[in-house]
Every structure is written in C-alpha cells, then in structure tokens.
TrEMBL record:
Protein name: Aspartate-semialdehyde dehydrogenase
Assembly, per entry: Homodimer.
Organism phylogeny: Bacteria, Pseudomonadati, Bacteroidota, Cytophagia, Cytophagales
EC primary class: oxidoreductase
Residues the record lists as binding substrate: Q153, R227
Binding site for phosphate: R97
Length: 329
C-alpha cells in the first residue's frame, strides 16, 4: 500500500503525519507531497527522513490513497488526476464538499455510504465535524428540528501565518497581518469571506454541510462563527431543538456511549471542555449540558475539539482506516 500525504509541510499536513504515526497506520511506502517550493525538503516520519516530492511525480507513482490538505485550488486541479490513476483521495479542502457526486464523511456517522466507486471523498469543515459528531447520538434518538451555533475558533484553523500573527502581537513585535484586524486580545466575528446574504462562508459551510452529513434538508441551522486568540481547538455553544422531548440523564448516557465523544460535565468542580485540554486529542468533548428553559425540547451544550485533529487530520485518517478495513482500497 502506497500512501501519499499532499500538503505535508502545512499545519494540517504535519498533524496528519502525527496521527498516522500514533494510529500505526499500515503502509508500505509513504510519499510526502507538496508544492514546487517545498520539493526536496526533508520531513521526518517516525524518526526517518523523507524527501518531499512534487504533485506530478506523486501521480506518476500511483498511490492507493492520498490524503490532501493543500487548499481548494490544488484539490480542484490535482484530486481528479490522482483519482484517474486509481488513487482514493481524501480531501480536507472545501473544493468537493458540496459536490453532489462526492460524499462528505464523518466516519462515525456516515462512512457506510462509501463504496469502491468513491475516488474523491470530502472531509468536512472542522467546526462542522465536531458539532455533528456530538449531535449524532441525540439526533438518532430524538430527531433534530433546529440548531443555533456560535463558534469560538482557534487561529490554527487559519494556518501557520495566523499563529505567527497572534504570537508576534503577543510579543509586541511587528506582525504580518493575516486577519484584517489585530487578533491577540481581540475577537473577530468573521471567518472566511462574507457572502451576499451577510453570512460568512464558514457559517454557510456549517449550515450546508450539517444537512448533507445528516442527509436531512429539513434540519434548520443558523451559525455565527468567531475567531478568538486561542490555539488548542475550536469551541462551540450549541442550542439544539429536538423533535421529541428528552431526558437529561439519558442525553448524558447517549453522549457517554457515543464513539469519539467524551463528556466533561461537572460544573460543581469547574469541569467543562476547554481547548487547552482538547489540544492533540482525537476526541470531541462535550459539557455544560442543560435544558433551555425558554423553549420546549431544547438543549444547550458546549462542544470542544482540536480542530487540527478530529476537525481535520484525525477524521481524514479515520476515513482511510475505514476504507482499508472495509476493502474499499
Ligand atoms: C477555520 N474552518 O477554522 C477553518 C479551517 N478549516 O478557519
């Protein structure tokens, strides 16, 4: 099995390598792939140096699987070229997510939809993944009518340059501006570009992707996505209205039993999910579980996950693991 990691030099790329190593992902050959300016660079995997190769060379080597994290335009151009030589592409960009011919997969929810015919598989947006994973056990029990989500997103979601901007500002140094404003000691109600309807693209991703992953266009979703000066992960305040009433003790049980979800909910002892604790973890953490007393059948919850892990690298590696375990490769 030949595995390619495309975009191996980026923040998500290095996280993918870490997750592959931690999960002991089986392969015979590893191709580390990046844009022309990184070709020839050395990157270590499990203590062994690998030389970065270019995209055209990687296609000619026909890997069985390629995990892409190289941005939308690289995916648009190169994913079909890999697919043509038989590679299964698992793509982290937004390029294919809403394409009706491509599946948008969170393995714990809908990996069963995958078949051998799926050559380009889309990984959802980070803020969507952690929300739908925590909602899935409740959705299957009570049904969801409406979701109102507000996010508190880490600068790592923008990439290394954004982390550098925040750190330079913190150190009082001159910062290269990635955001339109200072990010340290600030909060930006602005993630990705504004759309004609006044929402940002990040907000629209949460709305559209949630419906696609749950295969349910009737679920109403509204979102406000916000960048905050933190690094460990994304946090989300979610207000969810179910079709049926719920029992809070049962909600806790369902969440505790859900794969990939950890309940941290002990307010008396100041226990609740925080990005500081979610950092480098594969799971999604849920807490502050409480009934919305202003409306029937409605729950408030707080969801935190490392956006580079379950929000990107972990989910992509899990898709590859599913494909391997189920004979799709
Ligand atoms: C963010 N949604 O945090 C992103 C990254 N995929 O900006």
């Amino acid at each position: 099995m030949k595995l390619a990691v495309v975009g191996a030099t980026g923040l998500v790329g290095s996280e993918i390598l870490e997750v592959l190593a931690e999960h002991n992902f089986p392969f015979d050959e590893l191709l580390l792939v990046a844009s022309e300016r990184s070709v020839g660079k050395q990157i270590d995997y499990k203590g062994k140096p690998y030389t970065v190769i270019g995209l055209a060379e990687a296609v000619s080597l026909k890997p069985e699987v390629a995990i892409f994290s190289a941005g939308g335009s690289t995916s648009t151009e190169w994913a079909p070229k890999f697919a043509e030589v038989g590679t299964i592409v698992i793509d982290n960009s937004s390029a294919w997510r809403m394409d009706p011919t491509k599946k948008l997969i969170v393995p714990e929810i809908n990996a069963k939809e995958l078949t051998k015919e799926d050559k380009i598989i889309a990984n959802p947006n980070c803020s969507t993944i952690q929300m739908v994973l925590a909602l899935e056990p409740l959705r299957s029990r009570y049904g969801i009518k409406r979701i109102v989500v507000s996010t508190y997103q880490s600068v790592t979601g923008t990439g290394k340059a954004a982390v550098d901007q925040m750190m330079a500002e913190r150190a009082g140094e001159k910062a290269e501006m990635v955001y339109p404003h200072k990010i340290d000691l600030n909060v930006l109600p602005h993630i990705d570009v504004f759309q004609e309807n006044g929402y940002t693209k990040e907000e629209m991703k949460m709305i559209k992707e949630t419906k696609k992953i749950f295969s349910d266009d009737t679920i109403q979703v509204t979102a406000t996505t916000v960048r905050i000066p933190t690094m460990g992960g994304h946090s989300e305040a979610v207000n969810v209205e179910f079709k049926e009433d719920f029992d809070l003790a049962e909600v806790r049980e369902l969440l505790s039993a859900a794969p990939g979800v950890i309940v941290q909910d002990d307010p008396a002892n100041n226990v609740y999910p925080m990005p500081l604790n979610a950092h480098k973890k594969d799971e999604v953490f849920v807490g502050r579980l409480r009934r919305d007393e202003s409306q029937a059948n409605t729950l408030n919850m707080w969801i935190v996950a490392d956006n580079l892990r379950k929000g990107a690298a972990t989910n992509a590696v899990q898709i590859a693991e599913y494909a391997l375990a189920n004979g799709l490769i």
